[in-house]
Amino acid sequence: MGADRTRPTTRRESAAMPRNAVLALVACLLAVAAAVVSFVEGNWLGVVWVLLAAVTSNMAWYYIRRRRVDRAAAQG
After folding, report:
1. Calpha distance 7→58 (Å, rounded)
2. Which pLDDT tens digit goes with each residue over 18-52?
3. Averaged pLDDT for residues 51-72
4. Which residues have a Cβ under 8 Å from the Cβ of 23 and sit 6 or more positions away?
5. Which pLDDT score is estimated for 9?
6. 66 pLDDT exceeds 60?
7. In this prediction, what percent of the chain has a pLDDT beyond 70?
8. Which of 13, 32, 63, 64 keeps 20 to 30 A from 56, CA to CA?
9. Which DSSP string corresponds to the chain?
10. pLDDT score at 40
11. Could you give the CA distance from residue 32 to residue 29 in angstroms, rounded to a whole number?
12. Residue 29 confidence (pLDDT)
């Protein structure tokens, strides 16, 4: 069941960052921290964490950009 887009948004909702973007940013920060720890310990598994950080940062950018486009389209 999708989000109800017919209800009006309040000023607070339109100014807030999308929840998916926040979660993606948190995952990105955690992946970066895990990569740093892995590399400091000499473990090359940190490369996987760097790749995960790249994917999650792209996800965050996508959700932020999508919110901007949706808001611009709603305003006219």
Report:
1. 29
2. 899 999 999 999 999 999 999 999 999 999 999 99
3. 94
4. none
5. 56
6. yes
7. 80
8. 13
9. ----TTSPPPHHHHHSPPHHHHHHHHHHHHHHHHHHHHHHTT-TTHHHHHHHHHHHHHHHHHHHHHHHHHHHHHH-
10. 96
11. 5
12. 97
Distance CA 25, CA 35 (A): 15
Instruction: Read off the tokens for 43.
Output: 């473990």
Q: Radius of gyration of the chain from Cα atoms? A: 17
Closest CA to 55 of 20, 33, 31: 31
Q: State whether the Cα torsion 48-53-56-57 is positive or negative.
A: negative
Residue 50: name the closest of 39, 64, 61, 63 by CA.
Answer: 39
Encoded tokens for 7: 């209800």
- Residue 59 amino acid letter: M
CA distance 11 to 56: 27
